[in-house]
Design goal:
Shape: globular
Strand content: 5-15%
Number of strands: 15
Low-confidence stretches: none
Strand order of the largest sheet: 3-4-14-9-10-13
Distance between the termini: 33 Å
CATH topology of one domain: Rossmann fold
Bound molecules: pyridoxal-5'-phosphate
Number of helices: 19
Radius of gyration: 20 Å
Mean pLDDT: 95
């Protein structure tokens, strides 16, 4: 299996190389050269299998000969052993034809653990074999960073530097990043927004001298291995509701377009997904683009669902690549226009995008009201991101087709928003009950490439 860049001008890589590289050298993102498909019988045979077994069958065709079957099974087993729920991703029913897929039973209480725990094990296996070291940099709106630090802390062959926007992550998110004592992980609090953090990470990848000097590796949602890990729970949940004999819909609270892009891949692999709904908060650039074809960043307005406070949605590039029939030059052109302020999708590409995705947005008031209402009607306490999803899903219910909304974080990760909506403060699960008593270690930096690179150079282990 080969991986190609969405901008068409970087070398083809293997799965292992694409995983360790992150961003392609032409600025693009890696995608598989072909997308394998499963037959109806193969999908049906996933029913009632353990999560790890489904994960193996879904991901195996994408990893080529990077790992033997036994190695890969071991990696998957270790990745999900720390989850608190035996089914890893349980489904609960919210109402007629509407289900919630709880993706928050991993160690840092957000769906990011599904991908990051796997990536930690993949990196460890690959680097142990090669004897190499890498420096991982990542930008986070809160959950990626905590999941990455949790997955990589204490591993020998990696140093991890996570950039998060100062004052714009929840206290639980911040403490999950700043309290691990292992010295190979570093949390950097950057003056600015998430988009600034993400831009500095991209700058580091485009500074080839620095990139090679510190052997930079990326674990942001641009990393293909993360998308791949997320494809799995689309299969487990759809099959639990009767796929492939029955169609299902999914609604996905969306920021960087990684999670919903995994749903698109699941559909390309043969899962009968009838509708794939993009749900955004008031930072609704994706909803506007899918409606009008114009992608015009307007500046982030902080919301109660901060992990989706994003205007430059990096994985959207992957779906543009598909909508433009894999024309890398056309995608490179759009991304140049984006640097100059924004772009307009061609009519043909927009029609294709609209065939693939529905979309909707939830205001702050609607998000709070949804948290309050679902607690009363379903006994389910939603985090604000999941509430955005539920609200938008309700606008797209179809009596014949079950809808699955992805619950992307545990409510205790965003206690202020949940308490404001319901009057009750959600408590942390027992394994992190002492989070607020642990010591924090964090470095304050300006939104300045040279300063950030200097800190990294000074703090890598060799
Ligand atoms: C990261 C995140 C999202 C957005 O996911 P993308 O893959 O970036 O679209 C939504 N909700 C929560 C809780 C998250 O952490």
């Amino acid at each position: 299996m080969k991986y190609i860049s969405t901008r068409g001008r970087a070398p083809e890589l293997t799965f292992e190389e694409a995983m360790l590289t992150g961003l392609a050298r032409d600025g693009g993102l890696y995608v598989p050269a072909d997308i394998p498909t499963l037959s109806g019988d193969e999908i049906a045979a996933l029913a009632n299998q353990p999560y790890e077994e489904v994960a193996f069958r879904i991901m195996r065709p994408f990893i080529g000969d990077t790992f033997s079957d036994d190695e890969f099974r071991g990696i998957i087993a270790r990745a999900y052993a720390g989850f608190e729920h035996a089914s890893r991703a349980p489904l609960v029913q919210l109402g007629p034809g509407h289900f919630l897929l709880e993706l928050f039973h991993g160690p840092t209480l957000a769906f990011k653990d599904f991908a990051m725990q796997l990536i930690g094990q993949l990196f460890e296996a690959s680097l142990t074999r090669s004897g190499d070291r890498v420096t991982i940099v990542g930008a986070t709106s809160g959950d990626t960073g905590s999941a990455a630090i949790e997955a990589f802390r204490g591993l020998d062959a990696v140093d991890v530097f996570i950039l998060f926007p100062h004052g714009r992550v929840s206290e639980v998110q911040r403490r999950q990043m700043t309290t691990p004592a292992e010295t190979n992980v570093h949390a950097l609090s950057v003056t600015g927004h998430f988009d600034d953090c993400q831009a500095r990470v991209k700058d580091m990848f485009n500074d080839f001298a620095f990139r090679d000097e510190v052997r930079l590796a990326g674990v942001n949602s641009i990393n293909w291995a993360r998308v791949l890990a997320q494809v799995v729970y689309y299969f487990t949940s759809a099959v639990a509701l009767g796929a492939p004999h029955r169609k299902v819909g999914f609604t996905v609270p969306t920021g960087n377009f990684g999670d919903i892009f995994a749903g698109y891949i699941a559909r390309r692999m043969g899962l009968p997904i009838d509708r794939l709904v993009v749900a955004t908060n008031q930072n609704d650039i994706l909803h506007r683009c899918l409606t009008t074809g114009r992608y015009l960043p307007e500046g982030v307005i902080p919301s109660i669902s901060p992990s989706m406070d994003i205007q430059v949605s990096s994985n959207f590039e992957r779906v543009l690549f598909e909508a433009y029939d894999r024309d890398g030059a056309a995608v490179a052109q759009l991304m140049d226009e984006l640097k100059a302020g924004g772009f307009t999708v061609s009519q043909g590409a927009l029609e294709r995008l609209q065939d693939l995705f529905l979309s909707g947005r939830a205001s702050e008031e609607e998000t709070g009201a949804t948290i309050r209402r679902l607690r009363e009607t379903a006994g389910e306490t939603l985090c604000p991101h999941s509430a955005v999803g539920v609200k938008v899903a309700e606008e797209h219910l179809d009596p014949g087709v079950p809808m699955i909304t992805l619950a992307t974080a545990h409510p205790a990760k965003f206690p202020d928003a949940v308490e404001a909506a319901t009057g009750a403060r959600p408590g942390l699960p027992p394994h992190m009950a002492d989070l607020f008593d642990r010591d924090e270690r964090v470095t304050r930096v300006e939104n300045d490439l040279a300063e950030i690179e200097h800190f990294i150079r000074e703090n890598i282990a060799n």
